[in-house]
């Protein structure tokens, strides 16, 4: 089936009443940053918390009855896995999902909870591919490819239709790129309606696979990334051709850019995004001048982030902003001392996140001890005020945070 505007519109009709028409919100914070307008398309609010529900439904719905009876198989780092499992359960189809061994536990457990048979194989999707191909032949299953599939691409393209219908004066759209299915569908839909809209693909520096193809580069592809949803070593063959014809530019962001974007989305918009979903915002934060005075759309493509990783990112952001620090306080080990410290911190408006009473250090006299306290405050200056108060009361205080600061 040809990937064009008319067929994307047909897919949109097919998805009617089956998927969520996710909202487009204007980000005040990001809009001020570029002195323009930034609209976020919240596919993290879609079924299974990812845009993948669209393409998976179109592909599964169009299977003939025999293929549905035989069952389907998919390979995915998590989001496509959940989407296929979601629709397979609703259509009463057996689903086998092959996921990388390093897939986030949350995504593995959610996929299993949807009734799919989950097999962990290989460190990346590409390492899983040979196993998937063998299983397809052995068990006569139909592969629902995560990106190199016409029906999947048509389904993802409906996001572009929804976005441009709601925000008709967009000048650019930022789209995460892994295998290329999402950007291919959106680019065809949007460019067919308004060729002047610039399409930017965003990849992580650790997996610049489509960037290499697009730019004729040979950047290294390796390592683990926060953006596991777009950690694809080999982009799709079908998507490469579409991207070369419809995409204007591909930009790279690093892991710290992605961390910053995840925390920015939560702190300013109360949006929970996974790493892949935040790369568009990461690009805006990294190069705001590129989008100055423009109307920009960014696809927040998923919200399936591991809770521990999410908490760690937010805590790291507090520390980097100087709003959280860890101090070591020398004390005489006697009753009431810990309460005294707590009162001093509390009376100065600080919040104790964690506290440890260290008595076993070899360099501490037997009647002394050290208190390690993680303190949350409003700013670097606020931290300094709390430390000054402790020292004024006679305590020796030293910071032991990862990032050394003069307090």
Short overview:
It contains 16 helices and 14 strands. The protein has 407 residues and is α/β, with parallel strands linked by helices. The protein has 3 domains: 5-51 and 150-306, Rossmann fold; 53-143, Rossmann fold (3-Layer(aba) Sandwich), CATH 3.40.50; 321-399, Alpha-Beta Plaits (2-Layer Sandwich), CATH 3.30.70.
Topology (elements, then pairings):
Layout lengths: L4 H11 L8 E3 L1 H7 L2 E6 L9 H10 L3 H6 L1 E4 L3 H12 L4 E5 L5 H9 L3 E4 L4 H15 L2 E2 L6 H17 L5 E5 L4 H13 L4 E7 L4 H7 L21 H10 L2 E5 L1 H15 L9 H8 L8 E6 L6 H14 L3 E9 L4 H11 L3 E8 L9 E9 L3 H13 L3 E4 L8
Distance between the termini: 65 Å
Radius of gyration based on Cα positions? 25 Å
Low-confidence stretches: none
Tell me, rounded to a whole number, the average pLDDT.
91
Indicate the percent of residues in helices.
40-55%
CATH class of the largest domain: Alpha Beta
Number of helices: 16
- SSE string, helices as H and strands as E: HEHEHHEHEHEHEHEHEHHEHHEHEHEEHE
Structural class: alpha/beta
What fraction of the residues are assigned to beta strands by DSSP?
15-25%
Give the beta-strand count: 14
Please identify, by name, the CATH architecture of the largest domain. Answer: 3-Layer(aba) Sandwich
Note the overall shape: globular
- Major beta sheet, strand line-up: 1-2-10-7-8-9
CATH topology of the largest domain: Rossmann fold
User: Largest sheet at a glance?
Assistant: 6 strands, mixed
**How many domains?**
3
